[in-house]
Amino acid sequence: MTRHVRPAAALALALAAALPLVPAHASERDARRTEESRAVAAARIDATAAIAAVRAAGYGPVSELDWEHDRWEVKATDAEGRRVALHVDAATGAVAHRGR
């Protein structure tokens, strides 16, 4: 008796066999993203307020805004038009120069 395996069935079988080999770090990465999302949601200073704090501190247009280490990391320009990197405290809105 000859068995014929359909390509779709073979692919499904191969994927099912490989599933346990998916790296554990994928679920760890998802957990970090979930934790980060909760931290951003819980922050008293949201993205809009962080940009407003940077502008109120005398910096120009914001070119980048990221959430890192429980604070906002912002790239903007100073009064002379130079690019600067700033931190905005997520609890207080305090702006601190981080470097270029």
UniProtKB/TrEMBL annotation:
Residues 1-26 form the signal peptide. Pfam families: PepSY_2. Keywords: Signal. Residues 11-97 form the PepSY domain. InterPro entries: PepSY. This is PepSY domain-containing protein. The lineage of its organism: Bacteria, Pseudomonadati, Pseudomonadota, Alphaproteobacteria, Acetobacterales.
